[in-house]
Design brief:
With about 425 residues, the protein is of the alpha/beta class. The chain contains two helices and 29 strands.
Length: about 425
């Protein structure tokens, strides 16, 4: 039998303290585990909502649903509700996708265009009852859709055609006129050229030099309206429409991203770098050494009967030497009368990566990586004008990235796809 031994009262307190401490630790561990499980469930639900948001948009684009301007579609699946709305942004579509699950919300904005495939031609020349004449160092690689008279070699100022084949690809017969653009896009171009500002919109009265302005595409569009607007030393990013009744000037000190410019005349000075859409009713001139990143667009929409006599070098849409435009270049409208100057002029060493669409005549001395659509070519050398001649130009379809998306044209573009995610 063990002898009786007294235990101090402090020891009992210590035992109770240790027990309480262990209980607190166990409770903390239980609470932590429960919180971790709740957080994991919440995270999984959010990930599922994000995936559902993206997949719903892609399915919507693949099925061609919601293509009408202002369309609103609601999709419910696995207690996640997704609402898709769209509008035209320049010459592309802007889709906003909002997904919700209980109190959780997730929103995305995407700029959307039409994809391309093997059916998309390198060159489309509308039926104009004239053969296409290739001269100099011209090289056309890819499918060419040409007038019934076809293609033949030519000579300009003693420079004959140097290639061993006239077209490095399949040749098909074209139709009168160019493939049509979507109606919603052409309507939006006309509204912007008419300086149409919707009612009840927010406007900025002026822009301060050396100042940055940012507006999310989840917020209402902000309009900058004026007579002649100079964007020198101004940074504009996001959901802005800059609209002038006379002219907009952009230069190398401007920093423009994802905005839309609209004016009768838009001038982009030498060495400008940016990513924007420019829509004019009279003239767009891009200087030397500029870089307009994807997805940019240049659009001139001349009114019928507005074409006036002008210098040969003053084409309504001109891209200067050494400049690169990644996106779409469009000339629409103009007088039905025969003109003796090109409506679009791409200078030497200038490159269009994407789509070039000209409803009248094109003078191409640079390069198109992608597709060129035109009613005819023109070459001006030593004061002489050569109708439906293409001189020292390059058109290549194959190097264009298969993920490119741009202007939707009947018969020669595919389903819609995301061009870039916005903010």
């Amino acid at each position: 039998m063990l002898p009786f031994k007294k235990v101090r009262a402090g020891s009992l307190q210590f035992v109770l303290f240790v027990g309480a401490l262990i209980a607190v630790l166990l409770l903390s561990f239980v609470l932590l585990s429960h919180g971790h499980l709740l957080f994991q469930k919440k995270t999984n639900r959010f990930i599922a909502m994000v995936a559902h948001n993206t997949n719903t948009l892609k399915n919507n684009l693949r099925q061609g649903a919601g293509s009408a301007l202002g369309q609103r579609n609601t999709v419910e699946e696995n207690t996640i509700t997704t609402v898709i709305t769209n509008k035209v942004w320049g010459v592309f579509d802007l889709y906003t996708v909002r997904s919700s699950f209980q109190k959780q919300r997730f929103q995305t904005v995407a700029l959307v265009g039409h994809g391309i495939d093997e059916n998309t031609p390198a060159l489309y020349v509308a039926e104009n009852q004239r053969p296409l004449v290739v001269t100099g160092k011209t090289k056309i690689e890819g499918k060419a859709i040409l007038p019934e008279q076809g293609v033949r070699p030519g000579n300009i100022s003693g420079n004959a055609y140097f290639g061993d084949r006239l077209i490095y690809g399949k040749v098909e017969k074209s139709r009168p006129g160019l493939p049509k653009m979507p109606t919603g896009i052409t309507d939006n171009i006309r509204q912007l050229c008419a300086a149409f500002v919707p009612n009840s919109v927010q406007t900025l009265s002026g822009l301060a030099k050396n100042t940055e302005y940012t507006n999310s595409f989840l917020e209402p569009t902000l309009y900058v309206v004026g007579d002649a607007i100079d964007l020198s030393a101004i940074r504009l990013t996001g959901n802005f429409v800059v609209m002038a009744t006379r002219e907009i000037r952009v230069d190398a000190s401007s920093n423009l991203k994802d905005i839309v410019l609209a004016a009768p005349v838009i001038s982009v000075q030498d060495n400008t770098i940016g990513r924007f859409q420019a829509i004019a009713s009279k003239r767009i001139s891009v200087g030397k050494g500029c870089l307009l990143n994807y997805p940019s667009s240049l659009v001139v929409n001349e009114k019928s009967g507005s074409v006036q006599k002008q210098l040969l070098d003053a084409a309504p849409l001109s891209i200067g030497p050494g400049s690169t435009v990644k996106g779409t270049v469009i000339y629409k409208g103009g007088s039905r009368e025969r003109t003796f100057y090109p409506q679009v002029k791409v200078h030497q060493k200038a490159v269009v990566i994407g789509q070039l669409y000209c409803e009248k005549t094109l003078e191409l001395k640079g390069e198109v990586v992608g597709s060129a659509y035109t009613n005819g070519f023109m070459a001006i050398e030593n004061g002489s004008i050569y109708q439906n001649h293409i001189y020292n130009a390059t058109i290549q379809r194959a190097p264009l990235n298969a993920q490119f998306a741009g202007l939707g044209l009947e018969r020669y573009t595919t389903e819609k796809k995301v061009m870039t995610w916005l903010y």
